[in-house]
């Protein structure tokens, strides 16, 4: 770098072997600077290469580590696996992640601001981030090949941690281009063949999916005290909700609520609620409110309402009313039929946290029509295909076992005798 | 039992621990030493009793809201302090940890949670408990190592011997770091089940990862024998700031407005 000429004397001292912290951090600084410059000039961030370019890159990487380490006995090669380089690499990477942690990501304003042009609103696909990750992976790689010799338990733990981390980072980032994440919106009894990606591009899946049934399991309904002034629940400072159950009595603040009736599916007829068999029923309870000092002060219906049935509150006094909270799903699930052809189909059941593997896709239950709530006939599912997942898992389990060793052994025994 | 009963137990715990702290420097083999052990235990038992019965009455593990995690922090950090006190005879550490625990428990008194029995569907998973438990244990250890770091800095500037304190910090960082690693990885495995991807750079994930990086830095910095203990002590002390942002500050960061982990009622 020619612009460093005026400081020649200092420089010759700085770059003297063996390299230490100063050199490691200066290199890190220039790597970041280069990254930011490329980002400014090219813009748009980094696109990870897909199969088979990514696997080629990984193999070249590995061969390069091993060959260089074997063949070249230069002090720079030695430096590449030093703790000083490791510290600088971890610090640099930490700085990039800190930026990620502080700056809201994905912010897109009309005119790109400087932070947008520098890639700071999209850190993980920016050039400076790539540079810092490369620095980390190269130092980590050289550290691994240097220690790939003796196989004491300590060394195995070292290798599990470091190789595991290398594998996770490489497979997660280079593998990302091979990952597919599509979503499908299913309606009851309508076969669907198209899925969307996050940019709303459509894909023909080559198979049809049909929602047979969507089901929500609910938490029991609850009522709470609501301020008449602004319709907000009074919940601060230990304020609580009472669970509605027919025939029980609960205390809320200084009021005693007895739940005379509870209808899980109710329609409003004039002033009263009654059970309905139509769709759209809401939850309604007939509640008698008693005050300890003055006896019964109010009674009537409280309902949460739905798209078809109005909600009701029960006024207690000028300030407060009783209101029922909105339905909260305990779990929700879909019964889905997948058509491989007109005659050939398979049925499966998915719910949150319980994905199912179908034809190379992991199928997740992600949502439903929240306006319709318990009456939703829509189920949103996500289809994910990630061929690199097993590789990432190998890395994850290596680190888990490596960490187990750290946990067991610690850094070393604490000498209790010598103070 | 609910949070309504909390003040009683908090009072019990505080009174007994404060009594124990009064007797902090009493010599071994004296009556007071035994009494101190009894006070420590009764205070501890009170808060443990509350925690367990809260768990039972909520019908779900109490790991969800901020107040619940503060409760666990108080339980864990005091337990660690008590164990370390008897293992390595560190009265000052005991004082620190009991003080921290009481601070957190008292915060719960000032900012109680609203009563809530429900868990959103994605949180109803067999991963939930292990994930949160290892995180909290990890935080308790790492937070403690940072307190040792601060104490070490104090000794350093007073030009006292810090070799022992450094070794202690190292060991505790290793333990806490291993737990934090478990927490991150369990979280990744779980996220794959629940949301379809193991890592989404959610703000809470990002900050947990930053915490991990900060202590990773400390571990590697300590590998060279001759390195300045001062810098190492500063690293481990400052790492605590990152940990605190991860835990509490996250709710106030502009980058965290859409986090799936930000607790709300
Ligand atoms: C899972 C994450 C990691 C863990 C748990 C970890 C842990 C450790 C431990 C315990 C040691 C000392 C072990 C021994 O000498 O036997 C060590 C050494 C080392 N680590 Fe890491 N580390 C991790 C990540 C990294 C990263 C990201 C880098 C570099 C960018 C790195 C570079 C080094 C270097 C250079 C040494 C010194 C090795 C030697 O002198 O032989 N480590 N690491």
Report on the architecture of this protein.
The complex is a heterodimer of chains A (419) and B (265). Chain A has 419 residues and is an alpha+beta fold. Chain A has three domains: 21-178 and 390-418, no CATH class; 181-216 and 331-385, no CATH class; 220-327, no CATH class. In chain A, 34% of the residues lie in helices and 30% in strands. In chain A, strands 6, 7, 8, 9 and 10 form a five-stranded antiparallel sheet that branches. In chain A, a hairpin with a 2-residue loop joins strand 15 and strand 16. In chain A, helix 2 packs parallel to helix 5 (83-102), helix 7 runs antiparallel to helix 8 and helix 8 runs antiparallel to helix 9. Chain A is elongated. Chain A starts with 7 loop residues before the first helix and ends in a 10-residue tail after the last helix. In chain B, helix 1 runs antiparallel to helix 2 (31-58), helix 2 packs antiparallel against helix 3 and helix 6 (163-195) packs antiparallel against helix 7 (203-221). With 265 residues, chain B is an all-alpha fold. Chain B has helices at residues 6-22, 31-58, 66-88, 91-110, 128-157, 163-195, 203-221, 229-247. Chain B is built from eight helices and no strands. Chain B has a domain at 120-256. Chain B is flat and about 60 Å long. The chains are: A alpha+beta (419), B mainly alpha (265). At the A-B interface, helix 5, strand 13, strand 16 and helix 9 of A face helix 6 and helix 7 of B. The structure holds protoporphyrin IX containing FE (HEM).
DSSP strand tally of chain B = 0
Report, as a whole number of angstroms, the end-to-end distance of chain B. Answer: 20 Å
Q: Helical content of chain B, roughly?
A: over 70%
Low-confidence stretches of chain B: none
Q: SSE order of chain B in H/E notation?
A: HHHHHHHH
Spans of chain A of at least 5 consecutive residues whose pLDDT stays below 50 are: 1-12, 414-419
How would you state the average pLDDT of chain A, rounded?
A: 86
Q: Cα-atom Rg of chain B, whole angstroms? A: 19 Å
SSE run of chain A: HHHHHHHHEEEEEEEEEEEEEEEEEH
The number of helical segments of chain A is 9
How many distinct beta strands of chain A? 17
Give a short account of the largest sheet of chain B. none
Kindly, what is the distance between the CA atoms of the first and last residues of chain A, rounded to a whole number of angstroms?
51 Å
Q: Biggest β-sheet of chain A: count, sense, barrel? A: 5 strands, antiparallel
How much strand content do the residues of chain B show?
under 5%
């Amino acid at each position: 770098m020619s612009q460093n000429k005026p400081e020649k004397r200092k420089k010759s001292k700085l770059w003297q072997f063996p390299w230490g912290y100063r050199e490691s951090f200066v290199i890190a600084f220039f790597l970041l600077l280069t990254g930011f410059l490329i980002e400014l000039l090219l813009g748009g961030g980094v696109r990870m290469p897909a199969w088979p370019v990514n696997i080629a890159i990984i193999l070249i990487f590995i061969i390069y580590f091993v060959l260089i380490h074997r063949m070249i006995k230069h002090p720079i090669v030695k430096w590449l696996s030093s703790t000083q380089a490791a510290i600088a690499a971890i610090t640099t990477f930490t700085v990039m992640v800190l930026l990620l942690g502080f700056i809201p990501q994905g912010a897109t304003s009309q005119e790109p601001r400087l932070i947008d042009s520098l890639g700071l609103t999209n850190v993980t696909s920016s050039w400076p981030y790539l540079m810092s990750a490369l620095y980390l992976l190269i130092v980590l790689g050289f550290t691994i090949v240097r220690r790939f010799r003796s196989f004491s338990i300590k060394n195995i733990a070292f290798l599990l941690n470091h190789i595991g981390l290398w594998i996770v980072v490489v497979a997660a980032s280079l593998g990302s281009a091979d990952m597919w994440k599509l979503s499908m919106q299913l309606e009851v009894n309508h076969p669907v063949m198209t899925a969307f990606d996050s940019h709303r591009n459509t894909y023909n899946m080559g198979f049809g999916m049909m929602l047979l049934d969507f089901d929500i399991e609910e938490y029991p309904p609850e009522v709470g005290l609501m301020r008449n002034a602004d319709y907000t629940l009074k919940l601060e400072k230990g304020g609580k909700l009472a669970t509605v159950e027919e025939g029980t009595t609960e205390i809320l603040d200084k009021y005693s609520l007895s739940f005379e009736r509870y209808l899980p599916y109710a329609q409003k007829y004039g002033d009263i609620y009654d059970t309905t068999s139509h769709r759209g029923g809401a939850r309604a309870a007939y509640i008698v409110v008693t005050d300890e000092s003055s006896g019964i002060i109010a009674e009537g219906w409280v309902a949460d309402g739905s798209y078809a049935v109005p909600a009701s509150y029960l006024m207690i006094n000028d300030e407060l009313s009783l209101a029922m909270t909105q339905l909260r799903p305990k779990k929700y699930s879909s019964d889905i039929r997948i058509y491989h052809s007109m005659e050939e189909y398979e049925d499966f059941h998915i719910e949150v946290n319980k994905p199912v593997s179908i034809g190379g896709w992991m199928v997740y239950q992600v949502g439903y029509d929240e306006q319709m709530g318990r009456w939703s006939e829509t189920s949103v599912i996500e289809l994910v295909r990630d061929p690199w997942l097993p590789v990432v898992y190998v890395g994850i389990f290596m680190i888990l076992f490596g960490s187990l060793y750290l946990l067991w052994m610690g850094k070393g025994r604490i000498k209790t005798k010598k103070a | 039992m609910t949070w309504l009963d909390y003040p009683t137990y908090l009072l019990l715990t505080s009174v007994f621990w404060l009594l124990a702290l009064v007797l902090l420097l009493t010599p071994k083999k004296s009556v007071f030493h035994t009494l101190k052990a009894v006070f420590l235990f009764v205070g501890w038992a009170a808060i443990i009793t509350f925690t367990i019965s809260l768990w039972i009455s909520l019908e779900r593990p109490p790991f969800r809201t901020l107040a619940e995690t503060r409760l666990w922090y108080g339980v864990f950090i005091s337990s660690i302090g008590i164990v370390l006190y008897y293992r390595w005879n560190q009265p000052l550490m005991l004082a620190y940890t009991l003080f921290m625990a009481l601070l957190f428990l008292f915060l719960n008194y000032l900012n109680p949670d609203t009563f809530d029995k429900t868990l959103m569907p994605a949180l109803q998973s067999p991963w939930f408990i292990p994930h949160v438990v290892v995180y909290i244990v990890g935080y308790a250890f790492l937070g403690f190592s940072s307190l040792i770091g601060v104490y070490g800095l104090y000794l350093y500037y007073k030009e006292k011997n810090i070799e022992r304190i450094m070794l202690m910090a190292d060991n505790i960082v290793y333990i806490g770091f291993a737990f934090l690693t478990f927490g991150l990885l369990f979280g990744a495995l779980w996220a794959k089940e629940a949301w379809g991807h193991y890592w989404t750079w959610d703000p809470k994930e990002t900050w947990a990862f930053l915490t991990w990086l900060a202590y990773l830095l400390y571990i590697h910095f300590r590998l060279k024998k001759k390195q300045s203990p001062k810098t190492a002590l500063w690293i481990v002390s400052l790492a605590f700031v990152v940990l605190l942002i991860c835990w509490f500050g996250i709710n106030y960061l502009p980058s965290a407005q859409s986090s799936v982990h930000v607790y709300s009622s």
